Structure formats: structure tokens, C-alpha cells
Amino acid sequence: MSEPLTIAFLSSNLDFSYLLPAFQAQFPQARLRLGTELGPLEDIDAAVCWYPPEGLLARLPRLRLIQSVGAGIDHITADPALPDVPVCRIIDPDMGQGMTAYVTWAVIQHQRHMGAYLRSAAARRWEEQPVQPPRQHRVGIAGLGTLGLACAEALLNIGYSVRGWSRSPKNELPTGLQAFHGEAGQAEFLAGCDTLVCLLPLTEDTRGILGQPLFNQLPRGAHLINVGRGAHLVEADLLAALASGQLAAATLDALTQEPLPPDHPFWADPRILITPHIATRTDPAVIARQTADNLALIDAGRAAEVAVDLQRGY
Ligand code: NDP
Ligand code: OXD
């Protein structure tokens, strides 16, 4: 009789017990191993990860799948001892809807002066702010993948002027989306972003991309929304750009230090709105299903169809 499948849940900063009911339903015969109760490491076939403890994956001799619980995989590739095992990420239309809701809110929150209305309402004052039609506001989305494209489509549907930037040229874009690509297209893209949304993966090419050289290419007074990763942003450059007026505001959902410490200067700056990495989430049932699908394809010798291209980095 063959050994039952063993799935380990590995994270140095998240309690993964919330995933267990969905995995029990998806894999009724499997052994599910959480955190400190991993059992014999040589039993483990698949690891479901968010910042797995450094070096641990390399100690699992039977490992066939490293499954990210998110769209990004930077928290896995950060491990310098990453073994040569397929790494898969979540590709989830529902996650796209959650991201769309967040990004749409963040664009409108600033462009329609919602902060000022909250202050007026708290003081019982009937005060109007300027009302600018959406088509006069240009939103640029850096990263036209699963999530960026979903956001672009939604913003176009409510009338914003939307442009996007990707690494490679794109076919079949939503009608009205102005597309740019590569380093050659970056300056023209940035010059037309009243709001810039970062939905890039974190790779060696994109680390620190949100810094002074990029900010200087945006229209003066632009709004930055970072829903990518904290390490896309050069924090000191953001504070300097806000102080000089080159940027008017920033909405940040991904931070280098999570949780952001209470004494971090971002909390004290009224132009910066922080949310605690909640822009979107994936339903545990989707994570369990995609883990099962990925394992089946890997076992059928079709890993190349589902594994992230680690050379490219996303
Ligand atoms: P995808 O891999 O589907 O898309 C990535 C996009 O970025 C692609 O369009 C790609 O270009 C583009 N890109 C990559 N590198 C570059 C580069 N050097 N220059 C220009 N464009 C580049 O990713 P997803 O849309 O699924 O997710 C994007 C990111 O969002 C994740 O990696 C994660 O960091 C973040 N995220 C944040 C969440 C949150 O709650 N805050 C939740 C989920 C994800 P091309 O199309 O040419 O390949
Ligand atoms: C992800 C995230 O990568 O939640 O999915 O940030």
C-alpha cells in the first residue's frame, strides 16, 4: 500500500490553522502537518507556504510541490537554500475582484477628497470639495497581470482614463486601456499617471522601483498606491517626495516591516494612509483546490505548465 500524501503548512509569521478545514475537505486521506508538529521530515510531499522558515524546505527529501498561499512568491524565493522543486502561486479571479475593490476605493478616496469629507462630517460642516470627472483623472497600473488587468478593467468601466505598464507587450487588452511596456515605455507611462498603482511582483528588477527617480517622472502632486510589496518602495524617498510636494499622497497596503511598528514615521504623516496588507485574500478552498490541481499536474510530468519561472522571478 502506498504512503498517504503528507502536506506541511510552513510559515514563520502566520498561524495556518485556518487552512486546515479546507485542506481536510480537499484531501480527506492526507496527513496535514502544521508548524511545530511536522513529524518526520522525510514524509512531506507538499509544502504550503508564506515565509517558510529559512532552510527548512531544503531538508524535505520527498518534497514535490512548494505552494505559495498568495499570488506572490517572493516570500519563498527569499530562502537562500531553496531546493529545486516546482514553486506554484495562486492565480485566482476572486482575488482579482478583492484587489479591484481595494484599488478602486483607494483611487476614489483620494481623487474625490473623501478624507476631507470625513473631517467635515466629524465637525458637522457641510463643505464641498472640487468634483472632477473620472475621465480627467489618469490612473496608471504598473503590472498588467491577473490583478492589474482586473483593476484596469473596473476603473475603465467607471470612466477613469487608465494606462498600464508591463514587462512584455500585451495582446487583447480591455478597450480603452493605453498600454506601455519595458524600460523603453516606462517614462511615457509615468508621465501620465495622476495616480500610480503598483501591482508588480517583487523581483530583482522591481525591488526599490518606487523611489526618487520614478517619483520625479510622475506629474507633480501624484498619488501613489502600493499594493505590491513593501520592498518596491524606498521609504526615505517617499517621505522626501511628500515633503517636496512631488507626491501629494500615498496609500500603502504592503510594507517592508509587517506589522508596521507603532513608532514608524509613516503613521504620523497625514498624507500616508496605511492598511494592514488586506487588499485582497484567497479563500482557503481555492488554495486547497489549486494545491491539488498543481500536485496532479506535477505528478503527471507537467510541472512546466504550473510552476513559476524562477529565472524571471514571478
Ligand atoms: P502576475 O504575475 O499575474 O502579473 C505581474 C505583472 O507585472 C505582469 O504584467 C508582468 O509583465 C509585470 N512585470 C513583472 N516584472 C516587470 C518589470 N520588470 N517591468 C514591468 N512590468 C513587470 O501577478 P499578479 O497580478 O497575480 O500579482 C501581482 C503582485 O501583487 C504579486 O506579485 C504580489 O506582490 C501583489 N499582491 C498583493 C496583495 C495584497 O493584498 N496587497 C495580494 C495579492 C498580490 P508581463 O505581463 O509582461 O509578464
Ligand atoms: C499575495 C499577497 O501575494 O497576499 O497573495 O500579498
Tertiary shape: elongated
Number of helices: 10
Main beta sheet strand tally, sense and closure: 7 strands, parallel
- Overall strand count: 12
* Ligands (ions, cofactors included): NADPH dihydro-nicotinamide-adenine-dinucleotide phosphate, oxalic acid
Give the helix level as a range of percent.
25-40%
Strand content: 15-25%
**Average of per-residue pLDDT values:** 97
Rg from alpha-carbon coordinates: 21 Å
CATH topology name of the largest domain, in short, is: Rossmann fold
Q: CA-to-CA gap between the ends?
A: 38 Å
Q: How many separate domains make up the residues?
A: 2
Low-confidence stretches: none
CATH superfamily of the largest domain: NAD(P)-binding Rossmann-like Domain
CATH architecture of the largest domain: 3-Layer(aba) Sandwich
Main β-sheet, spatial strand arrangement: 8-7-6-9-10-11-12
Order of helices and strands: EHEEEHEHHEHEEHEHEHEHEH
SS-based class: alpha/beta
